[in-house]
Each structure stands twice: as C-alpha cells, then as structure tokens.
C-alpha cells in the first residue's frame, strides 16, 4: 500500500503457534487515528472480544508505532503499548521510547498485535514480518536489564527488545514492559505479556517508510530541534523532573504518607536539587531526542547508575515516608530491574504501611519511613511472596480483600494508583484523575497545567476546570498518537497547526489544525467507548473517599479541601463540555460526528 | 517611604539560575518586586516580557496560594512570594 509514513498494515501474531499474518489498515483509519495511542485504541476495539479477560490468550497486546517514527523529528522515536489492563479492567495505553520504536516499524508493520499463549517461556522474534517463537527458559526469572543483555549477546545488535522483568512473569498487576530501561509503565501490560509466556519481543530489519516531502520534513525537523534547545525545555535538560519535588512540597501538593499530608519534612534532603549536587553522574537521551531529560544518579551498586524521575522520587520517597535518598535510589533500581511501575509500587506499599499502622494487616515491620522493610516489601511484591502476593494485585483489590475502611484510603482511581499530585491542592488535576480513561493519570490528562497557572484557583475547582482539563486531554491524545514527547509542549505556540504541518509533510495529507482538534476528540472518545463496552459505570469517575471527606492539613503551604459536591459539579461540567450525557455516556449523534460508528461494528 | 522588604522564594530552574533558594527584595506590588529581584539576581533578567507584562515563562504566587500574572497586584504585609518556572508540573 502506498501511504507515506505508514506500511498500511499491522502484523497479527498468535504466539501459541507462531502463526502470523499482515492485516491491512485502511488509509482512512490511519488518518482518523494517526498512530500510537489513537491507532492502538482502534486496534483494541477491533481485536479484543467484549469482556475479554486481560490475561487470557484472547486478550490482544498491541505495540503501535506512528508515521513520525523513523523521521528526523526530535523525540519521535516512541511507541505505544495498548491493551486491556489487568489492574483496572479498562483500556490502558502506555508509552516507551527509543530504538525499539524505530526497529519495530522497520519490521514492516505499523503495529504488532500479540494474541495467544506460548507453550513455554519464550521470546518472540519479529524479523521483516517473519515470526519465530523461541524458548527462553534460561532467562526466565532474570531481571529486565540482565535479560536484555543476554538477548543482545544471543541475537546481536540488529534487534531491539521490549522486555518484562520477574514481576511481569509473576503477573504482578502493575508490571511494566521496558526497552533500554524506559518503561511502558502504567496499568500492568507487563503482566499481559507475561501471561502469554513471552519474556521479550525482539524486532529488527530494514523496511523503511518513505515520507511525502523529505526536504520539508528535514526543514521542519531542523526548526523543531533548534527550538527544543530553548527555555521551554530548560528544566528537563538542566534539572530533570526531580526538581518538581521541592516546588510541590512548598505548595503543600506533595503526596506524603499515603496522601495523609501534602508536605514532607525531609523534602530538602531528597530533593532534586540535593541529588543533582551530590549524586548526578550522567545525562542521557532517547534515540532521536535533542532534549536529553534523563538524569542518572549514583546508586548503591548500580552498574550504570539509576535514572530517577519525579514520579519515582515521590512514590518511593515521601509517599512511603522515606527520607533516605540511598533507599529511594535503590528502590527505583529495584523497580527497573524487576519491571514494576514505580507509582503503583510505591503507592501500594504506602497503602500497606497505613493498613499496618491501623492494625488492619499483621505486618509490624511495615511502617512509614522504615526503609529496610520498604525495600524488602518491594521485592516480595515482585516475587509474589508473603504479603507481596496480596499487594501485587494493586490497592483496589488489596483494599477489597483487607476490608474494614481500607477502601476509603486506597489511593487509586479505577484501580490505577494516583501519581504525585495531591488532588485536594491541585483541583483541576483532581478532575483529570477522576474522569481519565485509564484511571488516575498525569500523562493522558495534563490538567495540572491549569493548576500551575493564573487561569484558575488550584484550591477551588470549578466548571472552568472542566474546559481546561479537556484542553490538556485533547492535546495529550494528539501528541501520544503522533507520537512526540510531551516535554516539547512548551516549544509549540500552536500545537494543532504546527503538528498538522509535520503530519502533512510526512504523509502528504492536506491536514489542518482543525482536523487534528477533531482527531484528538475522536481518540479520547474512542477510549471512552471501549471502557463503556467493558462495563464502565458512572461511579468509577471519582476519587478515593479520603480525598473527598478529609481536609488536607496545612503544611508549608495552605490547607485544602475538595468536597464531594464540588467534584461532582466539575465532573458534570466535564461531561457537558465533552458533549456526553449527564451519566457520562456518549450520545449517538456525537459518535456519528466523530466518525466512530465503525467501533460498534467490530465486535 | 522605603518599599517593604519581601522574602522571595525561588524554585526549579529559577533557583538554579539565581544560585540561591531565596532573596530579599523590595516592592509593594508584584511588578515592583520582580524588578527588584532582577536587580538583586542579574541572571533573572527575563522576568518581564517585551511589553512590560510578566513573562509567561514564570509563575508567581503569593504565600503559595494563588498564581498571578498581574504586575499591579499588591503584596500583603508579611507575605512571601514564590517564583517558579511555568513548567512546574510535568
């Protein structure tokens, strides 16, 4: 098929028997959903039977590329992993970066869809559309980075791997899939890959996709690269996201001790500024990236240092009451090697700490601030040993089994643990968490941008919050489908218009900014439709009872509260602005308007 | 009458540029205060846009509560002012 930027097909693989076939993707589908998260959502609607068990052979796991992958556009080397989450039982889309995206697209497919279950622990090798399922017993149980090294030695540098750690093998519900220690982290898709008895997918070969206007793409790439070195990305280059910690702490917005507080007394000692002064050893970047946001720190015994982002720092630090940077770096390295989402891992242990302190579980060693117990528990979770077997289910299920008032303070939305933004202190973000299709999520919703602005009162959300939250969701849907890095967001003055230019030069389509606005709305709504199909109900769009019934005590910053009635009003405003019904469902006229009717014909 | 002294707390890239976590500056309004900060910390020479408005690259908050872009906003006596990058989240 002659579609610039695309192969026009996906590769559907049954790992039970190694059979594979290319299936065409119509150009109008590619134009409607672009790639990445958008195309992955369309493919999930197509390939997942209604009500599918996420870790059954019938559940698809989709690796999705985009038209910009393989171009010289900065930050374009990204891929999406899409599936039904075993943690939330809702759509989950996670992103990772670097060479796997480029190599994956060179296999000759715009997406690779995995189904079935291999007979034994295996690796899947995809090579110019040829597929092999090969025994991998010798690396089953190995940490992700060690296994990746073994595979590199076995298959050579031409192949790139996306791999699970022991957590994925043991079906930990927040296990990750990683490439070169960059994790498609949230929602447990590592467990889905593990349930297929696949340790890693290796991709390689040479099938490139031409772009429509190569000289224009190069010109746009040079301009984008030049702007990517400017002040809009300075924070990521010079400090890294760890610099968020002290800012959030000052605003009383740093989730501390399982969201009991917004201020952490030891914040200075573990801050990004402190780490950067004493322990930073390197800076790194993904393939095809000019920003270089990865800051590497000296951890104990780590062979290549430890990469640390704000979300890992908060979740493995203040959220668990840990004020020891050695312990935090060790925990981050553990999660990397074992293949666990640091946000969910930290939040689950924090939740367990509070349960233990309240006497709801018998775990006398588990106390906020006990670093040794904290590290041991993380290992137990990855291996599903002792209390780890319960915690590996995530906070929602763990709370249900523990009972009592545990569900009131389990820090999740739709089962996905809450990232490092205290909802009561950042109330537009609170709305973003409550309504997000994959659960509590700071990537698919960038609603914190509204809270960190003069547009709104972060301590008193309102109907205006809805409009602002929607703007960030739509922008995220576009950027996650193109795929470009969100750290570029400040570089664009007109995101829709400028990315329309990028897409036009790549594909030859006459794309406009208005079309991409519609595309964004379509993708967000398509995700919603999948969730509705899988049983979403209105009461899922909420926050934990703690957030709505307990005030956030003042810390360095002001006290805050988010009454349930206020959140309800914001959610209703969100539904209105989206054109959804009062119950949060998508009316038929909107399905038609957004050209989504075929979603219902698929299954 | 001399302008009041205000403690200005700096965060993120602002702190890095200034080389300090906080400065004592002077001003009764946000605009006056930021001009004073620019004199005290010469590396923070882009707090204002070309048209005299507050640069959109920064956020200013009084006592860590509300963010403001209004240079005419008065600073309550005893209040502390925060300056952070506009990319504070994410």
Explain briefly what this protein structure is:
Chain A has 603 residues and is an alpha+beta fold.
Q: Oligomerization state of this entry? A: heterodimer
Alpha plus pi helix count of chain B: 2
Apparent shape of chain A: globular
- Give the end-to-end Cα distance of chain A, rounded to a whole number of Å: 26 Å
- Which strand-content bin applies to the residues of chain A? 5-15%
Instruction: Give the beta-strand count of chain A.
Output: 17
Describe the biggest sheet of chain B?
Answer: 5 strands, mixed
Widest sheet, order of strands of chain B: 2-1-5-3-4
The proportion of residues in beta strands of chain B is: 25-35%
pLDDT averaged over residues of chain A: 95
Rg of chain B, rounded, reads: 12 Å
State the helicity of chain A in percent bands: 40-55%
Poorly predicted spans of chain A:
none
Instruction: Walk across the major sheet of chain A and give the strand order.
Output: 2-1-6-3-4-5
The rough form of chain B would be described as: globular
- From the N-terminal CA to the C-terminal CA of chain B, the straight-line distance is 43 Å
Number of strands of chain B: 5
> Would you list the SSEs of chain B in sequence order as H and E?
EHEHEEE
Give an overview of the whole structure.
The complex is a heterodimer of chains A (603) and B (90). In chain A, the strands form five sheets. Chain A has a six-stranded mixed sheet with strand order 2-1-6-3-4-5. Chain A has a four-stranded mixed sheet with strand order 8-7-12-9, sandwiched between helices. In chain A, strands 13-14-15 form a three-stranded antiparallel sheet. The longest helix of chain A is centred in the C-terminal third of the chain and has 21 residues, at 513-533. Chain A has 27 helices and 17 strands. Chain B has 90 residues and is an alpha+beta fold. At the A-B interface, helix 8, helix 9 and helix 20 of A face helix 1, strand 4 and strand 5 of B.
């Amino acid at each position: 098929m002659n579609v610039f930027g695309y192969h026009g097909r996906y590769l559907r693989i049954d790992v039970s028997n190694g059979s594979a076939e290319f299936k065409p993707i119509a150009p109008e589908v590619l134009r409607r959903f672009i790639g990445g998260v958008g195309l992955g959502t369309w493919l999930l609607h197509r390939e997942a039977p209604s009500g599918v068990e996420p870790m059954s052979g019938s559940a698809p796991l989709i690796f999705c590329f985009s038209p910009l992958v393989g171009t010289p556009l900065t930050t374009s080397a990204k891929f999406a992993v899409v599936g039904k989450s075993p943690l939330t039982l809702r759509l989950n889309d996670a992103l990772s970066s670097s060479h796997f995206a480029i190599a994956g697209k060179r296999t000759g497919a715009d997406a690779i869809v995995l189904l079935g279950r291999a007979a034994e622990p295996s690796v899947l090798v995809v090579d110019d559309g040829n597929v092999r399922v090969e025994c991998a017993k010798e690396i089953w149980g190995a940490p992700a980075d060690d296994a990746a090294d073994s595979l590199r030695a076995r298959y050579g540098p031409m192949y790139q791997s996306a791999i699970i750690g022991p957590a994925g093998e043991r079906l930990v519900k927040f296990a990750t899939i990683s490439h070169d220690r960059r994790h498609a982290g949230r929602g447990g898709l590592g467990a889905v890959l593990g349930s297929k008895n696949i340790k890693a997918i290796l991709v390689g070969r040479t099938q490139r996709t031409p772009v429509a206007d190569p000289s224009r793409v190069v010109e746009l790439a040079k301009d984008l690269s030049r702007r990517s070195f400017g002040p809009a990305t300075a924070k990521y280059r010079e400090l890294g996201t760890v610099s968020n910690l002290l800012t959030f702490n000052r605003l009383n917005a740093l989730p501390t001790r399982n969201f009991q507080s917004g201020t952490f007394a030891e914040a200075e000692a573990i801050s990004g500024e402190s780490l950067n002064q004493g322990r930073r050893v390197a800076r790194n970047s993904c393939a095809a990236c000019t920003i270089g946001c990865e800051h590497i720190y000296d951890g104990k015994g780590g062979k290549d240092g430890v990469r640390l982002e704000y979300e890992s720092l908060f979740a493995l630090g203040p959220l668990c009451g840990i004020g020891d940077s050695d312990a935090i770096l060790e925990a981050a390295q553990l999660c990397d090697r074992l293949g666990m989402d640091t946000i969910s891992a930290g939040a689950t242990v924090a939740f367990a700490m509070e349960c233990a302190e309240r006497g709801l579980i018998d775990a006398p060693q588990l106390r906020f601030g006990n670093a040794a117990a904290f590290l041991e528990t993380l290992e137990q979770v990855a291996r599903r040993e002792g209390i780890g077997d319960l915690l590996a289910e995530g906070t929602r299920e763990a709370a249900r089994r523990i009972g009592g008032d545990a569900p009131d303070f389990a820090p999740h939305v739709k089962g996905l643990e809450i990232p490092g933004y205290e909802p009561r202190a950042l109330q537009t973000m609170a709305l973003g968490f409550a309504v997000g299709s994959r659960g509590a999520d700071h990537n698919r919703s960038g609603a914190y941008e509204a809270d960190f602005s003069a547009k709104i009162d972060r301590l008193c959300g309102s109907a205006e919050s809805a409009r602002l939250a929607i703007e960030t969701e739509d922008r995220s849907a576009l950027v996650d489908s193109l795929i470009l890095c969100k750290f570029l967001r400040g570089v664009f003055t007109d995101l829709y218009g400028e990315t329309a230019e990028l897409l036009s030069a790549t594909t030859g389509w006459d794309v406009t900014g208005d079309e991409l606005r519609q595309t964004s709305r379509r993708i967000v709504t398509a995700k919603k439709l999948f969730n509705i199909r899988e049983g979403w109900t209105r009461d899922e769009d909420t926050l934990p009872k703690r957030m709505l019934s307990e005030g956030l005590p003042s810390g360095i910053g002001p006290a805050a509260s988010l009454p349930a009635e206020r959140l309800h009003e914001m959610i209703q405003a969100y539904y209105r602005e989206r054109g959804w019904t009062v119950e949060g469902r998508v009316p038929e006229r909107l399905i038609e308007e957004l050209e989504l009717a075929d979603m219902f014909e698929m299954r | 009458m001399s302008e009041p002294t205000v403690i200005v707390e700096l965060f993120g890239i602002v702190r890095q540029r200034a080389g300090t976590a906080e400065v004592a500056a002077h001003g009764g309004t946000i605009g006056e205060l930021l001009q004073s900060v620019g004199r005290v910390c010469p590396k923070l020479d882009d707090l204002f846009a070309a048209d005299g408005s507050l640069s959109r690259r920064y956020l200013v908050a009084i006592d860590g509560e509300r963010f403001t872009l209004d240079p005419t906003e008065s600073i309550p006596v005893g209040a502390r002012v925060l300056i952070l990058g506009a990319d504070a989240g994410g």
